[in-house]
Amino acid sequence: xxxxxxxxxxxxxxxxxxxxxxxxxxxxxxxxxxxxxxxxxxxxxxxxxxxxxxxxxxxxxxxxxxxxxxxxxxxxxxxxxxxxxxxxxxxxxxxxxxxxxxxxxxxxxxxxxxxxxxxxxxxxxxxxx
Amino acid sequence: xxxxxxxxxxxxxxxxxxxxxxxxxxxxxxxxxxxxxxxxxxxxxxxxxxxxxxxxxxxxxxxxxxxxxxxxxxxxxxxxxxxxxxxxxxxxxxxxxxxxxxxxxxxxxxxxxxxxxxxxxxxxxxxxx
Lengths: 129, 129
Prior knowledge:
Oligomer: homodimer
Number of strands of chain A: 4
Largest interface: A-B, 34 and 35 residues
Strand order of the largest sheet of chain A: 2-3-1-4
Structural class of chain A: alpha+beta
Radius of gyration of chain A: 20 Å
Helix content of chain A: 25-40%
Largest sheet of chain A: 4 strands, antiparallel
Distance between the termini of chain A: 46 Å
């Protein structure tokens, strides 16, 4: 391989590496889990969750659900355009205010699963949505 | 209670009962779960799921995700405007075609949870969305 050819090859390989990193950076990020509240606090916590999560950059889906089998349990399913957007959301003033108000009403978390969403219906603002 | 008063009372109670039934009928319905494919078949099954679920009446969210911890596992989270819409979707030709093609590639289901979604971001076509 001649020096010029090698330089072009390495440059191309570098660009592919950067593109690869870029693709990983923009992989969607999902997290599903169950939150259990203190007895009788589910409605209050649901209201705080819905109020605190209306304007989160990069949030493609954030759905709050009752568990029909447990009056104190809430299922939350989230999709973000990247894991970084999810992490950054925890610093948003509205989210921090909701966390502060909800914390004394939360008994625990369980059934947490991280996912890599790849498509479907209901991804707000996602490419192709 | 006079007969006329009683009639009015019973009529009002009847209307409230009907309204109550109506509200239950329009309660959203959610189902979350994990599907495991035969080895190496995840991409094929994901493609079938995404193709077969694009036009399902009453479907407010249907998100397909990879499990980052298992190369053969898929997480599916669904929200419907009613449990009936979910049930009816299983009779749609596109859904039945996808099920028929996917069946030999599916090794099993687990972690199934039914929920009652109450709000959030990404409920396509839901009231207030």
